[in-house]
Amino acid sequence: MMDTLQTIGETALIKRLVGRLATGRDVVVGPGDDCAVVRAGDEDWLLTSDPIIESVHFTAEAEPSQIGHKAVARALSDIAAMGGAPRWAVVDVVAPGDTDVERLEAIYDGMAATAAAHGLSIVGGDVACGPALELHVFAVGSVPRDGAVLRSGTAPGDAIFVTGELGGSRIGTHHLTFEPRLREGQWLREGGWATAMCDISDGLSTDLRHLTEASDVGAELQIDAIPCSEAAMSADDPVTHALGDGEDFELLLTVPADRENDLLNAWSRELSVACTRIGTVTASGQVVGVDAARTHTTLSATGYDHFFGDRS
Ligand SMILES: [Mg+2]
User: Fold this and answer.
1) Ligand 1 centre from 221 Cα, in Å?
2) For the chain, what percentages of helix, strand and coil (3-state, to nearest 5) are there?
3) More exposed terminus of the chain, fewer Cβ within 10 Å: N or C?
4) Å from CA of 32 to ligand 1 middle
């Protein structure tokens, strides 16, 4: 039987596609992290790209400036997840011929405002006619040489933290208005706090697995410690929602156990976003949840897969 995207899913697809690519010696980190890392003189550059598509990532009714914000902020979130500073971006627009030009202008105003707020210069792109409105943002960030915080650096015993609150992003408008955690990501890199980090774009359970697989470790998650958003609290099962819902765009990071108290103290002095300890890295290779009664459950990846859809 023929494999299709719907039968193999996103993870297997990416594996099959990147297996066909070759990378040069100036590539520090190839496919598989939040950004690729390439070397250019004294700096390492972070490369990421992200499409948003009408009816998939936003509705026709969404506020145009928020659509523009989301397109740029998603790419910024990946740069934040490496501890990087945003530098430049190019944007491709695909749109049907009957698209209202003023709507597109308002989307660009939203993109420009978010880019300017974070020091990102949008320096070009292209337009093409297509069946649905799509914005493709290709962004470049930078870190000092060898400074990027990868998914692969954690070890058993490290404490797992998450910024902000999780879940319910797509119940309300959080997925259109979230703030990329750039300041927090850079602060974590500068202080050498995070041994591994990624952003939560596909849901905590899925992105935690990305991190544990990249580091060849497991994790024990304290279910009752997961900070649920107000929108998630309105769902039937807030924790399940917070584990599976995508588009939180918070940071998931690990810190050595002997530094976790120092981290929380320094964090509360210098940053205003919440930072919550939600578990511990283990050697098991499994991701398990532990509730208040110390009942263990193996957590499956319930987050968003672009071809399987929402499994939460
Ligand atoms: Mg990411």
Assistant:
1) 20
2) 30, 30, 40
3) N
4) 10
